[in-house]
């Protein structure tokens, strides 16, 4: 059986199991049952099992749709599930939440205390009118997946996928990078004709979701929906300022040093990719593997060097069709880890083209997979698996660092030094982007006028881009390309989910700093924190992993000083 056949088998959902009639009797039985405080744990586990099955069905259909964005039948099946089954499940879940909250004399235990509070908050946020509006929102985000999944780029007279063309931005030949950049820009400008009105529709829906919930704006709605109780919007603004003051000058300094070594008169857009900075010696991009099978073998050896248990988990993913790494037409050009809770199986989707960045991204996504495995093993209730989103990127980002000492089979000494520098410089390059993404969304959903046009969005993004990427020379270029940099996956698909990457990158650097003196202890703390799942507040999860939940100027500045020292030694 080929890998693609194994993947298709893993994602298969029987037709009857994607219908509401399959789930409804069990929801009804749970709702009709008499419930005392003593009976809650068993009742709750039964509800969790049902919720896990529905979530797994939804996730399988979603992944299948992302792998086949050009297949109308597959898209229709997923959209039908989201339109017909999910709204009914949301209504049923609301009734079950109310039933649980009404049980007299019930006191949650240590592992359900946070869950009980979250359920209460979610029940308070529920509005019947937002159920159908949520269907419309899902249709719009799925439209974005379809548009970007089918995006084509013409380069050198040949039609290619976006990841294939982005690979050219790593070329040491400036003319190659420039041609690739212009090809991507032309394709993006063409796609913008559909993405811009799509965003206007999303803004309308999101504002109405907030209004229906009697909240002043969509930020307030998402703050409650995402259960953000450990920090405030004002602290996010502090982070934006801290990055502008402590990180942007460091990033500019790094880029200027690279430009000077390469003899560039200025840094043009095709000279800067935050995920893969130019090699200062002008060497060609590293190509540590060819094809997804070689990448899997490379990662297998790295995980074995780090920890046999982690290696066994990765081998399980290979064996059970839980990896789809190849880039191909019709496949959404993103990378992510999804999860099927009934079988405790994570699934990683990528679009690899043979670069060192692919290696880093695979470790990142498999770090998510480990989080799913460990929390799934430890937490019987499906809602207690994974973690709050402020922690969920730590297992992935920390894995990028923890594997650094186990790649001698993939890179020689010179290449390893390059890979390490790429990883460290990438953190510095990423933080301004994260601050820009978050600052844009705070403006978009709170300060922007209700009738904000695409031109207004472009103007704000341009203002922020000049703050967080001031070292890029756009002279003589169409600034519409720059101004539409907000055409990014998370802006359309997962609003207000981005600052978490920055929080977790800072924590991952801190974990790696500890691992340099105590590798075994750092790895055990990493595992222990994953096992806690979502049963502890965010600051406690950070502490369990050996990090601090901080993102103020002093803390960020101290970590930047550490990275400076590491870069000097690399």
From TrEMBL:
Binds 1 zinc ion. The keyword Protein biosynthesis does not apply. InterPro entries: Pept_M3A_M3B, Pept_M3A_M3B_dom. It holds the Pfam family Peptidase_M3. GO terms for molecular function: metal ion binding; metalloendopeptidase activity. Gene3D superfamilies: 1.10.1370.30. Keywords: Hydrolase, Metal-binding, Metalloprotease, Protease, Zinc. Residues 169-553 form the Peptidase M3A/M3B catalytic domain. Its cofactor is Zn(2+). One of its GO terms (biological process) is peptide metabolic process. Belongs to the peptidase M3 family. This is Oligoendopeptidase F.
């Amino acid at each position: 059986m080929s890998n693609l056949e194994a993947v298709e088998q893993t994602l298969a959902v029987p037709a009857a199991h994607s219908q509401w009639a399959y789930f409804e009797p069990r929801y009804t039985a749970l709702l009709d049952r008499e419930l005392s405080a003593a009976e809650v744990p068993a009742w709750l586990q039964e509800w969790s099992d049902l919720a896990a099955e529905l979530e797994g069905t939804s996730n399988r259909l979603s992944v299948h749709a992302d792998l086949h964005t050009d297949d109308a039948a597959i898209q229709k099946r997923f959209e039908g599930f989201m339109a017909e089954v999910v709204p009914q499940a949301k209504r049923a879940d609301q009734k079950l939440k109310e039933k649980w909250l009404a049980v007299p004399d019930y006191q949650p235990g240590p592992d359900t205390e946070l869950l009980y509070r979250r359920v209460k908050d979610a029940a308070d946020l529920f509005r019947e009118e937002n159920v159908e509006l949520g269907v419309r929102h899902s249709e719009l985000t799925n439209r974005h997946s379809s548009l970007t999944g089918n995006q084509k780029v013409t380069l050198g007279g040949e039609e290619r996928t976006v990841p294939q063309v982005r690979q050219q931005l790593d070329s040491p030949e400036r003319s190659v990078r420039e041609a690739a950049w212009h090809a991507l820009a032309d394709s993006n400008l063409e796609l913008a004709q559909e993405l811009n009105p799509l965003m206007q529709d999303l803004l309308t829906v999101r504002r109405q979701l907030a209004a229906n919930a009697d909240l002043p704006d969509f930020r307030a709605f998402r703050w409650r929906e995402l259960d953000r109780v450990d920090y405030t919007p004002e602290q996010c603004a502090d982070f934006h300022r801290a990055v502008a003051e402590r990180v942007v000058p460091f990033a500019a300094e790094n880029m200027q040093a690279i430009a000077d070594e390469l003899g560039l008169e200025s840094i043009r857009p095709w000279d800067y990719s935050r995920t893969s900075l130019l090699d200062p010696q002008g060497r060609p991009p590293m190509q540590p593997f060819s094809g997804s099978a070689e990448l899997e073998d490379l990662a297998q050896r790295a995980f074995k060097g780090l920890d046999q248990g982690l290696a066994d988990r990765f081998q399980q993913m290979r064996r059970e069709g839980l990896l789809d790494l190849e880039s191909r037409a019709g496949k959404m050009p993103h990378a992510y880890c999804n999860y099927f809770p009934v079988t405790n199986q994570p699934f990683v989707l990528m679009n690899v083209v043979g670069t060192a960045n692919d290696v880093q991204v695979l470790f990142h996504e498999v770090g998510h997979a480990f989080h799913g495995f460990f929390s799934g093993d430890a937490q019987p209730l499906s809602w207690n698996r994974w973690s709050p989103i402020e922690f969920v990127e730590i297992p992935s980002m920390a894995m990028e660092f923890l594997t650094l000492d186990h790649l001698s089979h993939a890179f020689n000494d010179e290449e390893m030094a390059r890979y390490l520098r790429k990883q460290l410089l990438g953190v510095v390059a990423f933080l301004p982007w994260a601050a820009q993404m978050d600052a844009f969304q705070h403006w978009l959903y709170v300060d922007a006028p209700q009738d904000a046009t695409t031109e207004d969005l472009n103007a704000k993004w341009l203002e922020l881009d000049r703050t967080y990427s001031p070292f890029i020379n756009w002279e003589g270029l169409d600034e519409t390309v720059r101004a539409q940099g907000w055409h990014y996956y998370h802006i359309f698909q997962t609003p207000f989910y981005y600052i978490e990457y920055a929080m977790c990158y800072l924590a991952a650097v801190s974990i790696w700093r500890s691992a340099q003196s105590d590798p075994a202890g750092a790895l055990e703390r990493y595992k222990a924190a994953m096992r806690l799942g979502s049963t502890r507040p965010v600051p406690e999860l950070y502490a369990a992993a050996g990090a601090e939940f901080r993102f103020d100027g002093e803390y960020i500045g101290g970590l930047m000083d550490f990275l400076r020292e590491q870069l000097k030694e690399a």
